[in-house]
Amino acid sequence: MGDRKEGQEQNGGLYGALAGAWNYAATSISSLLGFEDLDVVNPDGSRAEEAHVDANDKRVVAFTNYKEYIGMDLTSLVTLPVWIMEPYTILQKVAEIMEYTDQLDRAAATEDPYERLAWVAGFCIGPFGGNERPWKPFNPILGETFELDLQANGVRFLAEQVSHHPPVSAGHAENDKWVYDIVSAPSTKFLGNSIEIYPVGRSRIKLRRTGEVFSLVPPNSSAHNLIVGSTWVDCHGEFTLLNTSTGAKCSLYFTPCGWFSSGRYQVSGHIYDEEGRKVLALSGAWNSHLDMVKCDEEGDPLPDVKTTRLWQCKEKPQGDKYGFTHFARMLNSGKGLAPLPSDSRRRADRAALEWGDVGTAGAEKYNLEEMQRAERKERERRKESWAPRWFRPSKDATVYPAEYSLEECPMWEFTGDYLKLPRTPAKAGEDCAGKDYCPWEYPDIHKEAS
């Protein structure tokens, strides 16, 4: 726990990468920024190719003063431009966890307790398959939501931005087999040409049939070559999934990428029983698959034992500008939907960026931020306090081993009120993207301003 706490600063990022996909001259820009000795190395071990770059390039100008933020949380101190962003919000990133819910359904139906734990691990590894995107998602507005209805297996999901300073998102999902809850309060540390992303949060999964509760603590991520070179993402460190009901656990190690891509993507570890003995060996790559095989107490696979694939990353679209998966594209589509007025898909800045209008996206982002400031001032004028609509602070103070403390990550719980709402599908062909966005507590003040 100590190494992940070092240098943590709260911000609105998630365990995705926080930079644009830039590739420009190492020498000229390093000198411009005051990093004459900055080493720019791609994951294959090659140095970034030098090129001539106009000093007026907006990317260079935007970063000329960022050296003063080394060691700090970059995104909480400065306003980042739209051109390094993806048309996606942090709440949508949280919803990406729902892509491989079939693994949770499989876990719920599995009788062997250790294989059951392994299938839960397969579900938890799934989101990493889309974690190579080197773009910054939009920070949610306070009270913003994102909802998802997976009718194939009855999953309903809702996330809400429950705090602005510090930024905290809460999410809840369930079907008739399991319940999933997450609180996400990530932090970062800017290191000059890279940024460390600490996935501060609390993820818990309950299987309805067995009553077991699982606690997840994922590894850290890094985005390299933010300012010079080809930006690339790595996930590294310890992954812990604890069965809090029995004490059995899954411990995986995400190997940091070394020179010439040594160890890149590699994941390995074991399922341990209640006494700490190894019973299953797990291995794979966090961007493609995870396998399970029975093992001896030394952790070596037993002879002539079948290997089971716990998770396989689905094929990704070719040539997608932002590196979206098919599932991410689905989450970003507003066609045929009538979500809450506060839904991320309704944001005008997100929609404009999706349509390729960067100028409008930047202007709309600024307008939303100003409206959020106006809300805060009006709240202060009325001497009122703000409260989320769908989540509330939890009185539960239980912190399981390896989890973040209450000071690092507060407890929030789902009220259940959202599930009482009737489902209201949109008219055929209707698209909510960029339309009628309203997370506001005082909508009338914005009408007056416009």
UniProtKB/TrEMBL annotation:
Pfam families referenced in this protein's UniProt entry, alphabetically: Oxysterol_BP (PF01237)
SUPFAM superfamilies in the cross-refs: Oxysterol-binding protein-like (SSF144000)
Per the UniProt entry, the signal peptide is none
Domain of life, per lineage? Eukaryota
Coiled-coil features, chain-numbered ranges: none
Q: Which PROSITE patterns match?
A: OSBP
Kindly give the Gene3D superfamilies that the UniProt entry links to this protein.
2.40.160.120, 3.30.70.3490
Q: Which family does it belong to?
A: Belongs to the OSBP family.
| Stated name of the protein | Oxysterol-binding protein
Which species does the entry assign this protein to?
A: Coccomyxa subellipsoidea
